[in-house]
TrEMBL record:
InterPro entries: MFS, MFS_trans_sf. It comes from Sediminivirga luteola. GO terms for molecular function: transmembrane transporter activity. This is MFS transporter. The keyword Cell membrane applies. GO terms for cellular component: plasma membrane. Keywords: Cell membrane, Membrane, Transmembrane, Transmembrane helix.
Length: 411
């Protein structure tokens, strides 16, 4: 897998991605401390609104900026997004009101919603070989999982010697280094798409999704992943400290188990996809997720506290493996069903549609979960996950049946 880093352009882009991810993770922690300074006991409300703004920016801005910037070269788009993020991070230490945070978070996440799909759309051109591209996807998945583990540890280490305002300075430096690495890359030539109407550019990605049965099926798996991810991200702390009455470090341990499962699958996926079709791997993961979440709901409802902890740790690990089985190969479908001209729009559509699912499942897991309890909300999310998995299975089965029919007619 590491062999792919011998490609100099990809190595620089991957380094830029990792540095930007670490910067974003540290920035999130510093933002929480800033919110507490400004709002005190209402910091949770401030952060909740900020995270909602983040998701809205991801859903709405990604296709919009892709349409506006469609004819610009990819490198200045990536560099500009990094510099905007650096500028926002530089401004955060001077914030004195909650609404300042909201405005800056919208700008920050809008820049991220521009950077991420553009970055993802460049990689297939940098690594045209499918085997190398698959290994790059696994590295990218590992980077996301490691960031979730390393950012809190890095922030904690820094906070022992500096105040949280200095974390913003480090984040600025990270985004600037990311921009420098992108500038140092030699991008392959990608022809500028022909001029079209703005509405056509805005809807290009969504139309590509609807026209492709593979990508329509991917929409169902986006919903499946969002249901279990919402349960893990929103309710792990409630489960560990409220339901099981365990200490704070066990929250990190449980999230670590989830991340370890995800990383394990990311490591084995390149070899696995040499012998198994990517859609088969993804659908297996998509079917496993609601089953595992249903089992977790049963454990939360009926097992004694003494036995719950180990079993739930194993289930969180398995949820991580199934999630990674869906997410790691998914970009192969996007690459296969796009061209160099519409690839940024297709990746932006996936970015937007997948986060639209989180806009549904995060409030469900949090607000409804607080109202009805963890086992019942797990069942609600299981129901949504089953719907998504069924949609994908039926869509891809129809696609396979159509292909067989076409082959029989041709013969």
């Amino acid at each position: 897998m590491i062999d792919v880093l011998r490609h100099p352009t990809y190595a620089k882009l991957f380094s830029a991605q990792v540095i930007a991810l670490l910067g974003t993770g540290v920035l999130t922690i510093a933002l929480g401390l800033l919110a507490f300074d400004i709002a005190g006991g209402d910091a949770g409300i401030v952060l909740g609104v900020a995270m909602s703004i983040k998701m809205i920016a991801y859903v709405a801005v990604a296709p919009l900026t892709t349409a506006v910037l469609a004819r610009l070269p990819r490198k200045p788009v990536l560099v500009g997004a990094d510099l905007i993020r650096a500028g926002v991070a530089m401004s955060l230490p001077f914030v004195t009101e909650a609404w300042h945070i909201y405005v800056l978070i919208f700008l920050l996440q809008s820049a991220s919603a521009t950077f991420t799909p553009t970055f993802q759309a460049v990689i297939p051109s940098v690594l045209p070989d499918e085997g190398e591209y698959t290994r790059a996807l696994s590295l990218s998945r590992l980077a996301y999982d490691l960031e979730s583990l390393l950012s809190p540890m890095l922030a904690a280490a820094l906070l022992t010697v500096v105040g949280y305002h200095q974390l913003f300075v480090g984040t600025v430096a990270g985004f600037c280094v990311s921009a420098v690495l992108v500038i140092a890359c030699r991008f392959p030539h990608i022809e500028t798409p022909p001029p079209t109407r703005f509405l056509d550019r805005l809807t290009r990605g969504a139309r590509a999704f609807w026209a492709s049965t593979e990508l329509r099926g991917l929409m169902g798996l986006n919903l499946v992943v969002a249901t279990t991810t919402a349960m893990v991200i929103v309710n792990t702390v409630v489960l560990v400290q409220g339901h099981l009455d365990r200490p704070q470090p066990d929250v990190a341990l449980m999230l670590g188990a989830y991340g370890a499962g995800s990383m394990l699958v990311a490591l084995v996926v390149p070899k696995l996809l040499d012998t198994v079709a990517d859609r088969g791997v993804m659908l297996t993961g998509g079917i496993a997720l609601p089953i595992l979440l249903l089992a977790a709901a049963a454990v939360m409802a009926w097992m004694e506290h003494t036995g719950q902890w180990t079993v739930l740790l194993i289930m969180w690990f398995l949820l991580g493996t199934a999630t990674s089985a869906v997410l790691t190969p998914s970009a192969r479908l996007l690459r296969r069903n796009s061209s160099a001209h519409n690839r940024p729009a297709v990746f932006a559509a996936q970015f937007s549609l997948s986060h639209a699912c989180f806009l549904i499942t995060y409030p469900l897991a949090g607000i409804l979960g607080a109202a009805i309890g963890l086992p019942p909300i797990a069942l609600v999310l299981v129901g949504l996950g089953i719907l998504g998995a069924l949609f994908t299975a039926l869509t891809w089965r129809t696609s396979a049946d159509s292909s067989k029919t076409a082959e029989q007619r041709g013969s």
